[in-house]
Design a protein that fits this description.
By secondary structure, this protein is α/β, with parallel strands linked by helices. It has 9 helices and 6 strands. It is globular and about 45 Å long.
Length: 248
């Protein structure tokens, strides 16, 4: 089974428009919503306008402002270092995640899965919080990252992938023991923001090789404009390219 999930719904109105377009035309299976995205209200309005959709929570600890008033590092690498050093406390993360899930549910959206910006929910301790909140909010599915190393990408990106796969292996056991579900494979980390035909071909190969497994393709489509490209230029994402690939 293949799930194509568009991340970053709520980031900006142009990203929302692209994701909603793909949802309406059934080119993606669902989308993950950012409670602290600048266009959150616009995303909620457009979702409710379309009707019942497969919407999940895209939990965010970096880049965007927190909903709980907590001050987390903006950069995910800085966050990771401070977290490892014990400078970021788990209760603060739990408060932020709870606040984001509360905001989404209060808006009338019932999230059916959880993932996170920069996959930070996979970190030890944070995964325990994620599982606990998934049970409280009755969210049955949590994303893990298990992408084949054969994907084309830089050595640095592949080193990051090895680390995430290790974390995902531990997380999968915890998720299953909690009675929740997760994907068996994931494609979309190595080329995040620049999804290409090679990624779609990889998904097809995984489907043919393991037809009984759950495969998730993570993507970041959207309609681009100058404001989006300028504000998030450090991401080096190509939202429009991904949208055009997925719409075919």
């Amino acid at each position: 089974m293949l799930r194509i999930i568009a991340d970053d719904l709520g980031l900006t109105k142009s990203v929302n428009d692209g994701i909603i377009f793909l949802l309406k035309n059934r080119k993606v299976s669902g989308a993950s919503l950012m409670a602290n995205g600048e266009a959150f209200e616009d995303a909620v309005f457009k979702c409710t306008e379309v009707g019942p959709l497969n919407i999940g929570a895209h939990l965010v600890l970096v880049e965007e402002n927190s909903v709980s008033g907590m001050k987390f590092p903006k950069n995910h690498r800085t966050f990771f270092i401070k977290y490892v050093l014990g400078l970021i406390k788990l209760p603060d993360i739990e408060r932020e995640f709870s606040g984001q899930l509360d905001k989404i549910t209060r808006a009338g959206i019932k999230p059916v899965f959880i993932n996170s910006h920069q996959h930070l929910h996979l970190l030890p301790g944070i995964m325990d919080i994620t599982i606990s909140l998934a049970k409280i909010y009755r969210i049955p599915y949590i994303r893990i990252v298990k992408e084949p190393l054969g994907s084309k990408g830089s050595l640095f990106r592949k080193a990051q992938l090895i680390f995430l796969k290790f974390l995902s292996l531990m997380a999968k056991n915890k998720i299953k023991r909690a009675g929740l579900k997760c994907n068996d494979f994931f494609v979309g980390f190595i080329n995040a923001g620049n999804l290409g035909l090679n990624d779609l071909n990889l998904v097809k190969k995984l489907q043919n090789k393991s037809p009984d497994k759950l495969i998730e393709l993570g993507c970041h489509p959207g309609f681009e404009n100058a404001e989006l490209a300028d504000k998030y230029r450090h991401w080096r994402y190509n939202w429009r390219k991904e949208l055009e690939i997925l719409r075919k």
